[in-house]
Design brief:
The complex is a heterodimer of chains A (291) and B (273). With 291 residues, chain A is mainly α. Chain A has one domain (7-277): ABC transporter involved in vitamin B12 uptake, BtuC, CATH 1.10.3470. Chain A has helices at residues 4-10, 13-39, 42-61, 66-83, 89-116, 121-128, 139-165, 167-172, 177-203, 206-218, 222-246, 259-277. In chain A, α2 (13-39) crosses α10 and α10 packs across α11 (222-246). Chain A is globular. Chain A starts with a helix and ends in a 14-residue tail after the last helix. Chain B folds into three domains: 1-74 and 156-225, Rossmann fold (3-Layer(aba) Sandwich), CATH 3.40.50; 83-154, no CATH class; 232-264, no CATH class. Chain B has a seven-stranded mixed beta sheet with strand order 6-7-8-3-9-10-13, with helices on both faces. Chain B has a four-stranded antiparallel beta sheet with strand order 2-1-4-5, with helices on one face. In chain B, strands 11-12 form a two-stranded antiparallel sheet. In chain B, α3 (112-124) crosses α4 (140-152) and α4 (140-152) runs parallel beside α5. The chains are: A mainly alpha (291), B alpha/beta (273). Chains A and B meet through α2, α7, α8, α10 and α11 of A and β6, α2, α4 and α5 of B.
């Protein structure tokens, strides 16, 4: 087997754009994923993609770029969820659930109307990703957004960690806990909604949860888990983009397999390998008596 | 010398509901005070008011003679517990480090001083062996000790613990209370520990601050946990039962007769509005 196809793939502009945008957002997602684990917020990630789907589908309907639809709905939803967070957990989950149903209802309507009125590929792009059909003008904006979010995450890393594990101590020390939680939710929304371009809204959270969870099997500090998870995610996406490009020749009918399939498969295997090789001992040492 | 904590005429309300009113008291450095009272009496709210997290509608709190303020390194705060999944990448050392400089932006430089400060705090709670273990894989007592290390690593003058004994087994409960007592006495910290059961505090806490019905009684355990004192607080008859060195506070007279609600005992300072 020759690897000449990789050079050929790299020479193609859509592949280049897909690689740039995909790896950058995957890196951010891994970084964010470490905090999603620390804060136990993977449910929020799912909600954000679901709401983003509605925005993405709606954007195609009015002829806007899908990314803006995903992004605007996701960011609005993230701030809304965080502002509703002052109440008890049960109330908040109920409120989120009700709003989510409404959003999904509109999502269903928009996807249906997309298929009927706008172009037929729109719903496929929303659900399964549209990395190869990215508007080239969008690529610098995605890079800029991802870079800004990475810088923001690294900047608020420590106060966010303290606010996540001990919010009262964080408040005593002067950390603006509410503002920092909202900032994190907005970054999470940006990561998830841009992942939807890579892996589709159905699999967007795979890039948030998967690489970070894999990295967490063999790293113990949140920063290392975030950085390793980010690099792992970027690697997975790059491999997925190249394989998706090559898959055009795999079947006699000549059709590319979706990037999202490879992302999901790689994410799963990376986690399985890490889990198998870093099986964690569950022994508990006895409590040490105090003098 | 100023008391480490003093509050005067402290009144806190949520909306139209007054949690407590006109509380006045002092806690000296090195004093370990257990905060008791029924659910909803405002035990946690009192802690938050002292920490400056809840703004009182009247009265004032002073830490070391100065009005309490935000960005405070003089106060350590220990929550009920920290819930993390087993795989979450956060070690004991990470957790304690956040108590030292978690309020700063960016990343900590791995300096010798930082490492030594964290090690010292871990040693204070006998948790050096937990430094590199994940929080999610530790027992409740081990986690609670790490949270205490997180609170004391900045060498605070005041240590506030909000129901740290919840969800702990009996052995861990006694360990944590012994540890808190030792920290208060050796480290000359003023300590307030909120608990729902008085028994782990018997013979360990220097004083009891009992909150009920918006009022408080403060003094030595045997002076506060008396039927006439608690009945005065609650506003209805309360029995204090002692059996086998344990204490149970029960509502209502046990002999079928309503007990007269006496005035406060002279030994304990009961605040009646």
């Amino acid at each position: 087997m020759t690897l000449g196809w990789i050079g050929e793939a790299l020479a193609s502009a859509p592949v280049e754009h897909a690689l740039i945008a995909g790896t950058e957002i995957a890196f951010l997602s891994g970084l964010v994923g470490a905090f999603v684990m620390l804060r136990g917020q993977s449910f929020a990630g799912h909600v954000l993609t679901d709401v983003g789907t509605t925005g993405g589908a709606g954007a195609y309907l009015v002829g806007m770029n899908g990314w803006f639809g995903f992004l605007s709905f996701g960011v609005l939803a993230s701030v809304g969820m965080e502002l509703a967070g002052g109440r008890t957990r049960g109330e908040r989950d109920l409120a989120t659930g009700v709003v989510l149903s409404l959003a999904l209802g509109f999502g269903a309507l928009f996807l249906y109307l997309d298929a009927q009125l706008a172009h037929a590929n729109a719903s496929m792009a929303v659900l399964f990703g549209s990395l190869f059909t990215l508007d080239p003008a969008l690529v610098p904006w995605i890079s800029l957004t991802a870079a800004a979010c990475v810088v923001a995450m690294l900047l608020i890393w420590r106060p966010l960690a303290l606010a996540s594990v001990n919010p009262d101590l964080a408040r005593v020390r002067g950390v603006p806990v509410r503002a920092i939680s909202i900032a994190f939710m907005v970054v999470l929304a940006v990561a998830v909604e841009t992942d939807a371009l890579v892996a589709g809204s159905l699999l967007a959270t795979a890039l948030i949860v998967g690489p970070a969870a894999t990295a967490a099997r063999f790293t113990t500090s949140p920063l290392r888990a975030g950085l390793v998870g980010g690099l792992l995610g970027a690697l997975l996406v790059a491999a997925s983009v190249l394989l998706s490009y090559d898959s055009y020749t795999w079947l006699p009918q000549h059709t590319s397999w979706p990037v999202s399939f490879f992302v999901a498969a790689f994410t799963f295997f990376a986690y399985a390998i890490a889990a198998a090789t870093h099986r964690v001992a569950f022994q508990r040492r006895a409590e040490v008596e105090l003098p | 010398m100023n008391p480490a904590i003093s509050f005067r005429d402290l009144t806190v309300s949520y909306g139209s509901r007054t949690v407590f009113a006109h509380l006045t008291g002092e806690i000296r450095a090195g004093q370990f005070v257990g905060v008791l009272g029924p659910n909803g009496a405002g035990k946690s709210t009192l802690l938050k008011a002292i920490a400056g997290l809840v703004r009182p509608v009247a009265g004032a709190v002073e830490i070391d003679g100065k009005p309490v303020r935000r960005r405070n390194k003089a106060i350590g705060y220990v929550p009920q517990s920290v819930q993390l999944d087993e795989d979450v990448p956060l070690t004991g050392r990470d957790l304690v480090g956040l108590g030292l400089d978690g309020h700063r932006l960016g990343f900590p430089l791995p300096t010798k001083e930082r490492r030594e400060a964290i090690d010292a705090a871990l040693a204070q709670v006998n948790a050096l062996h937990l430094a590199d273990r994940r929080i999610g894989r530790l027992s409740g007592g081990e986690r609670q000790r790490l949270l205490i290390a997180q609170a004391v690593v900045s060498k605070p003058r005041v240590l506030l613990l909000d129901e740290p004994l919840n969800n702990l087994d009996l052995a861990s409960t006694h360990q944590v209370v012994e540890l808190v007592k030792r920290l208060a006495h050796e480290g000359q910290m003023a300590v307030l520990l909120v608990a729902h059961d008085v028994n782990p505090l018997i013979g360990r806490a220097d004083e009891i601050l009992y909150l009920a019905n918006g009022r408080m009684a403060k003094g030595a355990l045997d002076d506060v946990l008396r039927p006439e004192v608690l009945s005065g607080l609650y506003g209805y008859p309360v029995e204090v039962l002692r059996a086998g060195g344990r204490i149970i506070v029960a509502a209502g007279a046990m002999d079928g007769h309503a007990h007269a609600v006496s005035s406060a005992s002279p030994e304990a300072s009961v605040m009646l509005p």
